[in-house]
Amino acid sequence: MHVPGPYRPPDSSWMLELLRGNPLALLTTNGAADDEGVPYATHLPVIPGPAFPAAPPADLAGVPLLGHLNRANPHWAALPATTAALLVFTGPHAYVSPTVYRTTPAAPTWNFTAVHLYGTLQKIEEADETLDVVRATVRALETEFGNGWDMTESVGYFRRILPAVGAFRFTVRRAEGMFKLSQEQAPEVRDRVRCAFAERESSYQRETSRLMSRLG
Prior knowledge:
By secondary structure, this protein is α+β, with helices and mostly antiparallel strands. It has helices spanning about 10-20, 75-80, 100, 125-145, 155-160, 185-200, 205-215; strands at about 25-30, 40-50, 65-70, 80-95, 110-125, 165-180. The chain has seven helices and six strands; from the N terminus they run αβββαβαβααβαα.
C-alpha cells in the first residue's frame, strides 16, 4: 500500500483501534496458475489471538490473529497448510465535496482509513482448536458489538457445524496503516471538513470526524 508521509498513523494504537473496531477483514492470497494467477479474496471476521501483546511494536510484527471461513469456499481448498497472506481492514471513510473547502480552485477527494497486514497464515485442522477459534470469535464480537449473548447452550451446535469451518492463525510480519484525514489541507479547511462530517447522519462520517479531531 502506498502511504504518503502525512497519512501515516501517529502510532500503532491507531491501527490496533481500527482492527478491533472493524474486524471484518479481506483475506487475500495468491491464486493458482490454472486460474491465471488471479488472487483469492474472502471477507471474514478476524480477532486478536492468544498472547496478544499489551504493547505491540510499531509495525505490529509478531502480533497473533485468528480467523475462520467456510470450508466450502474454494479459497480454503486452495490454501496450503502455511502460506503468505494479506489481511485488509477498512475503517471509517467519507467523501469530501469541494463545497466544504470554500476555496477555489479545489478538487473532490475521499478521506479514508485502512490497515494492511502482511504475514503468515497457518490452517488449523484439529477440531478442538477450531472450536476454540469459533468460541473466541463469539466472545470477542459479542463483547465489542453484541449484547453479551451466552453461547453455553449453543456449543453443541458449534460442534456439529465444525466440519464446515476452516479456522486459521495469522502472524503479522509487518503492517501498513493509512489514515487520510485531510492532513494536507490548511488547518481552517481541515476544520471545516471535520465539522461537516460531524453534522452528518452517517456513523462513518461522524467517526471520520472523531479521528480528525484526534489529530489536533
